[in-house]
Design goal:
The protein has 404 residues and is of the alpha/beta class. It is 43% helix and 17% strand. Helix 3 links the parallel strand 3 and strand 4. It binds zinc ion.
């Protein structure tokens, strides 16, 4: 069968199933569920794939709302699509994850239809808890992505959304959450303060130390925090105080280096005050994103072939962080942006909630899902393309690990 015939099989299958796939996305939009509570959302997404013929395994990697829906053979390339579906507390689908899920469902259904006897595997991974916790980090740590040759996904954006095709685009910052708590000694703040050990002072000194460190970090570093506990009353020396910080950087290597500097600062604050430090990581770190540009260019060509033209990508420092970063160290990855609003727009807002069920939102999500399916066919049919993707992956991972 010609590659054009396979492409047509994919596009036709997507059109046949379009209504029920869109219904799943609308259902997720109408029932927003936050991180790790996506029971109905993950069930709806897994069920539609199962009904179409995927083998579905629910509750993988110890996450009740994660799933793997797979089809195909054990020989040949293994191409994956990542589906997120968690909502934001109090906002609903203000990040458009119901559409992220839809793009992966569309891609999976299209790619499955195109296989038609080709030795290859197509998997849609249901990846919960992107907005908090980091489901993909736990799935990666559980080895869920082993054997996957390439992973694609799409994140909705505004009119300036791009497909990251050039080096320096598609970046995200590595991020470690750090809990810094001090145990001191309570005393009357006026009657016998000399008997107290001020745990709040230790947190304040930690902030000051981090602020002094700021002069000596690279431009991609971000260190920001809040005080969670700072005492109960002004006339009592606080015997317990706790801060929560995020330490971010353009590479995980540099991020871990900064985390150790922050640890030294907290140890210094402990020495200065006499308060006992407890320094811990409440969540696994997310790593910087290693975008695979060979894969991104293949995807962009397919986006254009079906009529979704995006602005040219340009190199830009990462600003946010994503749990996909960790996956991108083990699987060649691209997450393309695409527009669901026609102008610029503040994210995590009601505007995005509305756009995530708009005709533009649904229309472009179907186009992006189709382009991901077509790219999977390219990778399966053209071994040299997959080799190029893997070659770039090997080089870029070692470069990142060496970089500071
Ligand atoms: Zn998001």
């Amino acid at each position: 069968m010609s590659i054009d015939a396979r492409r047509q099989l994919a596009l036709d299958a997507i059109d046949v199933h379009a209504d029920k796939l869109r219904e799943v996305s609308q259902f997720i939009h109408d029932h927003p569920e936050i991180a790790l509570e996506e029971m109905q959302s993950s069930a709806a997404a897994a069920a539609v794939l199962e009904n179409i013929g995927f083998e579905v395994e629910r509750g993988i990697a110890g996450l009740p709302t994660a799933f793997r829906a797979t089809t195909g053979t054990d020989e040949g390339p293994h191409i994956a699509f990542l589906a997120e579906y968690d909502a934001l507390p109090g906002v609903g689908h203000g990040c458009g994850h119901n559409l992220i899920c839809l793009s992966a469902l569309v891609a999976g259904v299209g790619a499955r239809a195109a296989l038609d006897g080709l030795p290859a595997r197509i998997t849609v991974f249901g990846t919960p808890a992107e907005e908090a916790v980091g489901g993909e980090v736990k799935m990666k740590n559980a080895g869920i992505f082993q054997g996957v040759d390439a992973a694609m996904g799409a994140h909705p954006g505004d009119a300036e959304a791009i497909c990251p095709t050039v080096p320096g685009s598609g970046e995200a910052l590595a991020c470690q959450a750090v809990s810094i708590a001090f145990k001191g000694q309570a005393a009357h703040a006026s009657a016998d303060p000399y008997n107290g050990i001020n745990a709040l002072d230790a947190v304040v000194l930690t902030f000051n130390g981090i602020n002094a460190l700021r002069q000596h970090v690279k431009s991609d570093a971000r260190m920001h925090g809040i005080i969670l506990k700072g005492g109960e009353a002004p006339n009592v020396i606080p015997d317990y105080s706790e801060g929560l910080f995020y330490v971010r950087a353009g590479t995980r290597t540099y991020m871990y280096e900064l985390v150790e500097k922050v640890r030294k600062i907290a140890e210094g604050a402990s020495l200065m005050t006499g308060a006992t430090l407890s320094f811990s990581f409440p969540e696994d770190a997310t790593w910087d994103m290693i975008t695979n540009y060979t894969l991104a260019r293949a995807l962009k060509a397919n986006l254009e072939s079906i009529g979704l033209a995006l602005p040219e990508a340009k190199a830009e420092e990462g600003s946010g962080s994503t749990d996909w970063g960790n996956v991108s160290y083990v699987v060649p990855s691209v997450e393309t942006g695409y527009p669901i609003v026609a102008s610029r727009c503040t994210w995590h807002s009601q505007d995005v909630v509305d756009a995530s069920e708009s005709e533009l939102g649904y229309g472009n999500t179907f186009l992006v899902g189709k382009a991901m399916a077509l790219t999977a066919i390219d990778l399966i049919e053209q071994p040299e393309m997959l080799q190029a993707v893997k070659g770039e992956f090997a080089t870029s991972v070692s470069a990142r690990l060496a970089a500071q």
